[in-house]
Structure formats: C-alpha cells, structure tokens
Amino acid sequence: MDIERLLTTSDPEVVEGLYAEARRLRDEVYGRRVFMRGLIEVSNHCKNDCLYCGIRRSAQVRRYRLDEGQVLDCCDEGYRLGFRSFVLQGGEDGWFTDEVVCRMVAAIKGRYPDCSVTLSLGERGRESFRRLREAGADRYLLRHETANREHYARLHPQEMSFDHRMQCLHELRELGYQVGCGFMVGSPYQTLDTIRQDLSFIEAFRPEMVGIGPFIPAAGTPFENERAGSVELTVRLLAVIRCLHPHVLLPATSALGTMHPRGRERAIEAGANVVMPNLSPRDTRALYAIYNNKLSTGSEAAESAADIRARLKALGYEVPLDRGDYSV
Ligand code: 5AD
Question: 3-class SS at 107?
Fold first, then answer.
C-alpha cells in the first residue's frame, strides 16, 4: 500500500477505491454495524499541561468533577436509551484514586452486568491498572498522541514522558484490557513521517481500538493560533487504518463532527464503526472543553440516540444495542 499516495492524491478514483476497500473490510469483520458507547466526562481537572489541550492544568476554566452517584445517574439514563457500553473519561485528576474508581466501576458492573466499562483517565501505574481491571473495567483508552519521540516532546511539557505513555499501553495490554490508542490529525509539528510512524505503531501493537480526530485549537493554550487539522486527511487516515488493521474498532470522533456537519457520516463511509455520544450531565458538558466549539448537543448528545440510530439506518447501518466488543 502506497500510504503517501493514498493520503495526498487528489484522484477521486483512488480515494473512492480506498474508502470502498475500508468499508469492505469492516463489513467482512463486523457487518454493516455501528456500535454506540455513552461517553461520560467525569472530570476536567488535570495535573498535566499538554500544550494542545483546553483543560490543561494552566487553563483558566471552571473545574468540575462527578461523584459516584452522578456517574451512576448517567449510566441509568444511558441504559434506558439503549447504551450497553460506557466510557468514563477525564483529565488526570488525583481525586480519582484507585479506591474511588474501583468503587465506581464495581457499582456500574454490579447494576449493569451486561454492559462494558471503558476507562480513559490518562496515565497511571501498573498496580493501579491492575486494580481497576480487577474491579471490572473491560477496556482502556489512552491515545499515544504521536509515535515519534521528538514530536511527543514538542506537544507536551518536559515532565511528561513518551516512554511512560508507551509503557502504560503495554501494561494495559498485558493486564487483559481491550486497549485503545490514537492521535490527533494535523497537530502542530506533525509530518507525513510522524504519521507513518503512527501507522507502523498501530500495525505492530494491534490495538483493539484507535481514536483519531483532527487537532482543533483551544483558546488559552500555547497552540491557540495554530491551524486545525484537515477533515479530509482524518477521513483518509481512518480508511488507511481500517485497511492496515481490519478488526480494529474505529470511532467517528466528536472532533470530526465538530469540524464538519457530515464528519461523522463521512468517517463511517470510510470504515469507522463506533460512535460515542455524550452522556455527561447536561450542565457539565460545556465545561469539558478540550478544544474550541466542541459539540455536545444535537447528534453528539446521548439523548439523541434514537435520532443517531435513525440517521445511521438511513445510511444502511444497523446499530445493535450491545457491548460492541472487539472481534478476534
Ligand atoms: N484538538 C483535538 N483533540 C484534542 N485532544 C486534546 N486536545 C485536543 C485538541 N485541541 C485529544 C487528545 C486526547 C483526547 C482525549 O482528546 O488526543 O488524548
């Protein structure tokens, strides 16, 4: 596969061929099915100061966190709406100790044993990952952000370590999680070469999930005046990732939906097979502003689940009400 050509060509026949092959491979593994996860943004407190992120430590934003009762309320609503998979995502917030998270996970699994629980709480120690897994967490999302060490250093403050991030991904894998990695498309200093390294990493690591979305500048961050990533390149990369790793679970991310009204549909037509509507409490959604104008209403909102399913149905997709596990 000539990846550079696929990502840069303006020949519509080549591009359509790429999307058709991505759809074919997805359909072969998963059928024409798109899985839904309810995304619960549990905290916008974060001890890290990533240069791109709108909720970085030094950002001047109103902070919030959800307690166990609030998280369970979100799950109750999600379950009623048909969700069987919940994602607890948040900044690296010290309030979410192992004890607190284990209790939350165990409570969700106790109430809803037919649901999967995914955590996306940043880097933690191996022992912590082990305890959360033991408490019932099924999956863990931790974007690697970039597989190029020098690039990583330009996106993150000095105290953050590329090696530790990679180590976390390997530990999660060893502990039996379904693991998701991923990166932003068009982040500052990204090149075709760093993208090639991201793709090689994905090919070698074979994660169960890959989350990619365009970089979108966030007000008040060092990158606030940088250019946003391209929707077109993001969609092509989704298709390339599907072709390199046909079994992967590939979300059509909100960043894509934020940048283009048909962003999510385009992703699905290029081989994506997961959507993650926002199931956070209505009054905290706007506070989880990792980038400007982040969508959390309309078709990004979990209460629109029926609407989302109808739109996908119109495109010819089933939206099963199940956990949507990785298919081996
Ligand atoms: N634009 C797009 N994606 C972002 N993320 C963080 N900040 C931004 C931004 N400005 C992504 C990172 C992180 C995930 C939760 O959101 O890749 O891992």
Answer: helix
Decide if 181 is inside a domain. Answer: yes
Does residue 209's CB lie within 6 angstroms of at least one atom of ligand 1? no
Which residue owns the Cα nearest ligand 1 atom 14? 143
287 half-sphere exposure, CB direction, 13 A CA radius: 21
Ligand 1 atom closest to the CA of 142, numbered from 1: 18
Q: Is 290 in the pocket of ligand 1 (CB under 6 A)?
A: yes
Residue 159 pLDDT: 97
Residues 227-251: pLDDT tens digits?
999 999 999 999 999 999 999 999 9
**Domain presence at residue 327:** no
Q: Is 39 in the pocket of ligand 1 (CB under 6 A)?
A: no
Q: Rounded to an integer, what distance in angstroms lies between the CA atom of residue 125 and that of residue 154?
A: 24
180: CATH: 3.20.20.70
Q: What is the pLDDT of residue 89?
A: 98
Q: What is the pLDDT of residues 155-180, one digit of tens each?
A: 999 999 999 999 999 999 999 999 99
- Tally the domains of the chain: 1
Nearest to 60 by CA among 215, 221, 217, 216: 221
Ligand 1: atom nearest CA of 291 is 10
